[in-house]
Amino acid sequence: QVQLVESGGGLVQAGGSLRLSCAVSGSIFRMNAAGWYRQAPGKQREMVATITSGDSTKYVDSVKGRFTISRDNAKKTVYLQMNSLKPEDTAVYYCNAVIVIGPLAVGNDYWGQGTQVTVSS
Protein backbone atom coordinates (compact mmCIF):
# COMPACT_ATOMS: atom_id res chain seq x y z
CA GLN A 1 0.00 0.00 0.00
CA VAL A 2 1.43 3.35 -1.02
CA GLN A 3 1.47 6.14 1.53
CA LEU A 4 3.09 9.55 1.85
CA VAL A 5 4.73 10.02 5.23
CA GLU A 6 5.55 13.56 6.26
CA SER A 7 7.98 14.70 8.94
CA GLY A 8 9.86 17.79 10.05
CA GLY A 9 7.12 20.06 11.30
CA GLY A 10 7.24 21.80 14.64
CA LEU A 11 7.41 25.07 16.52
CA VAL A 12 9.97 27.67 15.49
CA GLN A 13 10.53 31.35 16.14
CA ALA A 14 10.07 33.91 13.40
CA GLY A 15 13.17 34.06 11.23
CA GLY A 16 13.97 30.42 11.86
CA SER A 17 14.10 27.45 9.51
CA LEU A 18 12.51 24.04 9.15
CA ARG A 19 12.84 21.29 6.59
CA LEU A 20 9.84 19.14 5.79
CA SER A 21 10.24 15.69 4.30
CA CYS A 22 7.70 13.57 2.47
CA ALA A 23 8.71 9.96 1.95
CA VAL A 24 6.81 7.51 -0.23
CA SER A 25 6.33 4.18 1.50
CA GLY A 26 5.54 1.05 -0.49
CA SER A 27 6.64 -0.17 -3.88
CA ILE A 28 6.18 2.26 -6.76
CA PHE A 29 7.25 2.52 -10.38
CA ARG A 30 7.66 6.27 -10.54
CA MET A 31 6.79 9.51 -8.77
CA ASN A 32 5.67 12.20 -11.18
CA ALA A 33 4.84 15.72 -10.05
CA ALA A 34 4.81 16.46 -6.35
CA GLY A 35 4.08 19.43 -4.16
CA TRP A 36 3.47 20.95 -0.79
CA TYR A 37 0.22 22.59 0.22
CA ARG A 38 -0.84 24.26 3.44
CA GLN A 39 -4.02 25.08 5.27
CA ALA A 40 -4.25 27.65 8.03
CA PRO A 41 -7.21 27.75 10.45
CA GLY A 42 -10.27 29.22 8.77
CA LYS A 43 -8.60 29.35 5.37
CA GLN A 44 -8.66 27.25 2.24
CA ARG A 45 -5.82 24.93 1.38
CA GLU A 46 -3.30 26.64 -0.89
CA MET A 47 -0.44 25.48 -3.05
CA VAL A 48 2.93 26.36 -1.56
CA ALA A 49 5.37 24.77 -4.01
CA THR A 50 5.36 22.15 -6.74
CA ILE A 51 8.05 20.24 -8.58
CA THR A 52 7.74 18.24 -11.79
CA SER A 53 9.53 15.02 -12.68
CA GLY A 54 11.94 17.21 -14.63
CA ASP A 55 12.66 19.35 -11.54
CA SER A 56 10.76 22.43 -12.73
CA THR A 57 9.49 24.29 -9.70
CA LYS A 58 6.73 26.73 -8.93
CA TYR A 59 6.03 28.72 -5.77
CA VAL A 60 3.24 30.82 -4.35
CA ASP A 61 4.36 34.45 -4.31
CA SER A 62 4.40 34.70 -0.52
CA VAL A 63 7.20 32.13 -0.15
CA LYS A 64 9.39 32.94 -3.15
CA GLY A 65 12.98 33.46 -2.10
CA ARG A 66 12.37 31.81 1.29
CA PHE A 67 11.22 28.25 0.52
CA THR A 68 12.86 25.66 -1.72
CA ILE A 69 11.26 22.45 -2.92
CA SER A 70 13.45 19.55 -4.02
CA ARG A 71 13.23 15.82 -4.60
CA ASP A 72 15.41 12.73 -4.33
CA ASN A 73 13.94 10.11 -6.64
CA ALA A 74 16.25 7.37 -5.38
CA LYS A 75 14.91 7.94 -1.85
CA LYS A 76 11.36 8.54 -3.09
CA THR A 77 11.33 11.71 -1.02
CA VAL A 78 10.28 15.31 -1.55
CA TYR A 79 11.60 18.11 0.65
CA LEU A 80 10.55 21.63 1.52
CA GLN A 81 13.28 23.80 2.98
CA MET A 82 11.67 26.76 4.73
CA ASN A 83 13.86 29.70 5.74
CA SER A 84 13.05 33.12 7.20
CA LEU A 85 9.79 31.78 8.54
CA LYS A 86 7.02 34.20 9.41
CA PRO A 87 4.01 33.82 11.72
CA GLU A 88 1.77 33.85 8.64
CA ASP A 89 3.45 30.62 7.51
CA THR A 90 1.73 28.84 10.40
CA ALA A 91 -0.44 26.06 8.98
CA VAL A 92 -0.78 22.34 8.51
CA TYR A 93 1.44 21.39 5.60
CA TYR A 94 0.42 18.56 3.30
CA CYS A 95 2.49 16.65 0.79
CA ASN A 96 0.96 15.63 -2.54
CA ALA A 97 2.36 13.41 -5.25
CA VAL A 98 1.24 11.71 -8.42
CA ILE A 99 2.41 8.13 -8.12
CA VAL A 100 2.60 5.47 -10.79
CA ILE A 101 2.64 2.04 -9.19
CA GLY A 102 3.44 -0.06 -12.26
CA PRO A 103 4.80 0.29 -15.81
CA LEU A 104 1.32 0.00 -17.34
CA ALA A 105 -0.51 1.93 -14.63
CA VAL A 106 -1.73 5.50 -14.74
CA GLY A 107 -0.72 8.03 -12.14
CA ASN A 108 -2.85 8.47 -9.04
CA ASP A 109 -2.99 11.36 -6.62
CA TYR A 110 -1.79 10.75 -3.07
CA TRP A 111 -1.82 12.99 0.00
CA GLY A 112 0.08 12.85 3.25
CA GLN A 113 -1.55 13.15 6.65
CA GLY A 114 -0.25 16.66 7.25
CA THR A 115 2.35 18.10 9.59
CA GLN A 116 1.88 21.16 11.77
CA VAL A 117 4.19 24.13 11.36
CA THR A 118 3.85 26.87 13.96
CA VAL A 119 5.88 30.08 13.76
CA SER A 120 5.88 32.26 16.86
CA SER A 121 6.47 36.01 16.71
Mean pLDDT: 96
User: Any idea what the shape is?
Assistant: elongated
Helix content: under 10%
Query: For the CA atoms, what is the radius of gyration?
Result: 14 Å
Report low-confidence residues grouped into runs of 5 or more: none
For the termini, the CA-CA separation is 40 Å
Give a concise summary:
This protein is an all-beta fold and 121 residues long.
Structure, described:
By secondary structure, this protein is mainly beta. 0% of the residues lie in helices and 56% in strands. It contains no helices and eleven strands. The strands form two sheets. Strands 2, 4, 5, 6, 9, 10 and 11 form a seven-stranded mixed β-sheet that branches. A four-stranded antiparallel β-sheet has the order 1-3-8-7, with no helix packed on it. Strand 5 and strand 6 form a beta hairpin. It is elongated. The model has no long low-confidence stretch (mean pLDDT 96).
